[in-house]
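Run log // design_07
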């Protein structure tokens, strides 16, 4: 099994627009489908409620790692941690990194989620599979978001 998921998409929007969609907690919440309790701040926990149909029972929790303006936004989280009765806090989280690059048509956005080799074996394959598909959907969601709200 691969340790990392990597997706790229070309967005017909300036880097500044894509950066805002990623790092403004309300905009992020719109396309990612999570109602966040407050702004993203490096070193701080971000919490909220997932609003994606079928997952409304799931709480969002991530620790913002880096916010390098218009270049890198990253956080750690527990992938596919959807069972409200399970405590995931003892697990090593994965790292999600969004990188932005200016290209002729707008912005090349790359998301890499790494560290699946540290996810407990009993849930590793499902977490990888679900997030692999999830990131494909989310890349399309942000593309649609920056097109509509340019």
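design_07 sequence
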């Amino acid at each position: 099994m691969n340790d990392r998921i990597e997706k790229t998409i070309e967005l017909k929007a300036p880097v500044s627009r894509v950066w805002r969609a990623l790092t403004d907690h309300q905009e992020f919440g719109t396309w990612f489908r999570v109602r966040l309790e407050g702004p993203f701040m490096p070193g701080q926990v971000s919490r909220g409620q997932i609003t994606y149909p079928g997952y409304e029972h799931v709480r969002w929790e991530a620790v913002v790692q880096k916010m390098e303006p218009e270049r890198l936004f990253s956080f750690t989280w527990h992938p596919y941690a959807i069972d409200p009765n399970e405590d995931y806090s003892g697990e090593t989280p994965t790292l999600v990194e969004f990188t932005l690059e200016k290209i002729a048509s707008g912005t090349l956005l790359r998301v890499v989620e790494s560290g699946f080799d540290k996810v407990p074996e009993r849930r590793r394959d499902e977490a990888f599979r679900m997030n692999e598909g999830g990131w494909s959907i989310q890349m399309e969601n942000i593309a649609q978001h920056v097109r509509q709200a340019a």
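Residues 121-148 form the longest helix (28 residues).
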